[in-house]
Structures are given as C-alpha cells and as structure tokens.
Amino acid sequence: MFSKSTVERILDRFPVARLGQLDDAGLAQALPFVFVRAAGALWSPIDGKPKKRAALDRIGWIENHPDVCILVDHYEADWTKLWWLKLFCDGRVIRGSHEHWSAAVGALAAKYPQYPDVPMFIGEPTMLRFEIKRWKSWAAQGDEALEAWLASEPT
C-alpha cells in the first residue's frame, strides 16, 4: 500500500479524480471532479463549469450517503506502468464558510489556472469536503514504477 506521503504527492499532482457515491435509490454513481488537497482534506467547488441544472444530484447524495469512494488511476499502453489509488472518505457539503474555507479556495486557485476565466462558485458558494478515512492502492510494478511516474513531467 502506498505511504501517506506518496498518496499526498499523487493527490497534489492529479488534476481530476472519479467520485463514487450512492444515489437516493441506493445505486452506485460515478463522475469526474476537480479537487485540491488542503487543510487535511480534499475540497471540490461547485463551480461555473457548464452544468445540466443548478441543483446537482451529487450534493443531495452526499448529504444522504456521506461514505464515498474516490478513485485516482493511471493508465498507459505499457501495462507494467499501471496503478490506482482508492480513497474511502467521509463527504460533507460545505456552504459558504468553514474554518479552512480560505485555504481551500487559495489552493484551488493555485492548482487550476482556469479559475480566473471560470467562476469558482455559482449561486451560494458551495464546496464538497472529503475527509480521507483510509485507502487502498496497487501498482503493477510496485512503488518503483509509481515513483518513476511521480518523477516524470506532468502531462
């Protein structure tokens, strides 16, 4: 299993992950999302990227089923370089304020240069906060291949 420092390095580098959660009917749902690691948690804004509608299902789902799974994975045609990281988290919907709100907003602005052109929030400022409880990980060639990927130039 990847060490805590390796997990943090992956999360700081990766631009997008997949959020797995249960919907109101108890069915598994997954969707990509942007995030940042700040103040001991992962944060994701409900931002100004185009949405089907303003009331997002994922907000209610997290409020009703806060246990979520986040997947970060790396694929290459050379299957010896494959790896994945699953984070088991407690998800919370944060509206407008939190003791670490400013740190999360600053980290998001630093990680995603798109935010000057795309509003970080639409409507009431809302973020999803994910507290990591535990993780599982796998790398085809163990930590050596993952370390090589981490040392490579970001793509």
Nutshell version of this structure?
The chain is of the alpha+beta class. The protein has 4 helices and 7 strands; from the N terminus they run H-E-E-E-E-H-E-E-H-E-H.
Based on the model shown, name its key terms.
155 residues; Pnp Oxidase, Chain A; 7-stranded antiparallel beta sheet; 4 helices; 7 strands; 25% helix
Would you give an account of this structure?
The protein is an alpha+beta fold and 155 residues long. The chain has one domain (4-151): Roll (Pnp Oxidase, Chain A). The chain is built from four helices and seven strands. It has helices at 4-13, 57-64, 101-111, 142-151; strands spanning 17-22, 28-33, 36-38, 41-45, 67-74, 83-95, 126-139. The longest helix is centred in the last third of the chain and has 11 residues, at 101-111. The radius of gyration is 16 Å and the shape is globular. The two termini are 24 Å apart.
